[in-house]
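Subject: for your reference before the review

Hello V.,

The reviewers asked for a structural picture of the protein, and I figured it would be easier to keep everything in one thread rather than splitting it across files. Below is the amino acid sequence we used in the manuscript, unchanged from the supplementary table.
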Amino acid sequence: MIITKIGISLCALALPLFAAAQGRQYVVEGKIGKLNPPAKAYLFLAHGIDSTVITKGSFRFTGNVDGAMPAHIIINKKGTGLQSNQIGGSPFTFNFYIEPGKISITSPDSLPNAKLTGGPLNMDYVRLKAQLRPTDKALGDLVDKLLNATPETRNSKAFNDNFQQESSAIGLRQKKIWLDFIKNNPNSLMSLMVLKSYSGVGSRLLYNSIPGSPALEEVDSLYHTLGEHVRLNPLGKDFGDVLARQKYMKIGAIAPDFSQTDANGKLVSLKDFKGKYLLIDFWASWCGPCRAENPTVVKAYHKYKAKGFDVLGVSLDFANGREAWLKAIKDDQLTWTQVTDLKGWQNKVADLYMVRAVPQNYLLDPDGRIIGINLRGEALENKLQEVLGAVSSVDLDADTFEYVVKGKLPKSSIPKRAFYVYTHVDGTIATDSTDVKDGVFSFKASTNKKESLGFVRVSDLVKGKSSTSGKFIQFYTDSTTITLTSASTIDQAKIAGGELNRDEQALVELVKKEPEAGYLKFLQSHPNSLIIINALQKLRESSPDIDVESHFNSLSVRVRASEKGKAYAAKISEWKKVMIGAYAPQFTAADTAGKPVSLKEFKGKYVLLDFWASWCPPCREESPFLRAALNKYGKDNFIILGISLDNPRTGKEGWIKAIKDDKLTWPQVSDLKYENEVAKLYSVTSIPQNFLLDPDGRIIATNLRGEGVDRKLGELLKPL
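And here is what came back from the structure prediction:
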């Protein structure tokens, strides 16, 4: 993903540029609105953090420095720590440079609107930032577009191609501004700061969105255009030393050997990989741009490993981050060798390879010679194709097969485009698109998961762009040719090709005639069909108290031994724990104020455990029925406990807003994780879902919808 083009600056190491000795004094004076205690300001420097109370909007920091260094200020209105006023969901940081003399930061209201004055470096920084304002805004808008896109859109080739084009265009505009500044201001220390960020070792004060990494020769040449007093400055001398050391890490050089331990304590050496094309990938679990780049590396690894390509991950995680490192390896499906000494930025391999920022990588040939540096996104695959050749179906894993999806729709005067979402050979979700010509379209794809689902969406083209809506159809990719034919829209298409598609259509027809009985009839008539697991799953969702174990045991050996069958069998023991008649599993979770709430607190009452989320419209539609039931039967005998499946995407704010908007007056808890722990405990795989418990904590009803809660309570309680 092209977000990695700005990754160098986003995860760059804030290096101590030189020690803060007894040098010349600096004074930072701030005036932000009319803030008063307990509000505090926090000053971040390379060698530590300082803080002070704000009174009548004013704060002041003093100290001694030998020269300039990057600095950041955060304000916390409550004075409770390093959490600031939040902009876009993350702390807003005001960036500037500490340098000898007086520096002023003033704003009539808030830190984001503050103005900076004082010091020649800061004044050049303000001047440069004014020139960069259009590109900074364009880059921010582009990243927002990425973060707000749906997973389907974010994984689509069209979206990523467009993102790369826009990102590259912004980067090239920024590059011109930076290089013009260096050329026109050779005696400004700010030109050195620009050059450091351009080369990839700068601080976060200048975000680098420039595509590609400049050659060492170009950086060295630009460095020698700077004025002598800039190069002799401690910052300039430090950067000159970095350039000198980097000369042995250039394209064509033999990569230095090293050894480091993997997760099991086994010593791994670079020489172990001799004879292969090897990507040494420097990353960390805490680095967002690294994690965003991982799918690219995963895809390249699976595509080219049969041709002699391998990856060696070197993590810059810290001593307290071992579990996070291992979890990231598992979550991101990094199946290659991983090593670390858990020393963060002091990682010995990172120091040897001059790594000042992550993500960063080096591609080596079979002799250990460096043939690529910082290959991101498509650049990595392009380089691998250059040295290893194109990948054919023969090179793919043995269980990988290629297939074609073809479609035939009525001709239309309105131009249309078809989008295909499927499981790629590396196990990730991929998206392809093509124009519909005379009602015909075709996709060629490959996968190694024959039981996976794909779907095609067809949208109208409006002014050359696809509409965000459009009909779609879902099907299984278990045949070499799948044909979708419709006399109207794509969602009405007949599906030809594949055993799974044939049986799925038979199931759909049965359920149309008899919604619940249809599932049972399919179980009886198709005991050897792999689709039967889907039927069981849907039957359990509509009737959670059915005897899933006996139904499963009646299936054929083929079905029970399939991948889906094994997964279903593993779930049965969990489902039995939350069937009608079982005692509800105990749990404790935090409410909106962070206070722990335990299920045992409600013993002695009828309790409805309501699983929902602010982003779930069907859940929100249930709210009036739940309010009515609570008002009718009262909190003395009956209570509702809401368990929200809100997550980091919707956040605590979205959860609390939905509680307020829907007038949910009963207790609410959530861990705001993508995989809610209470939902896992109760085997909740879809919402809305609920469990009614009796005063002893036994489950007596499940999945009550609409007036179903009122009817069930009417059997048990008298209205107020």
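For the response letter, the relevant points are probably these. Residues 1-22, 83-91 have pLDDT under 50 and may be disordered. Residues 259-388 form a domain with the Glutaredoxin fold (CATH 3.40.30.10).

Happy to draft the paragraph if you're swamped.

O.
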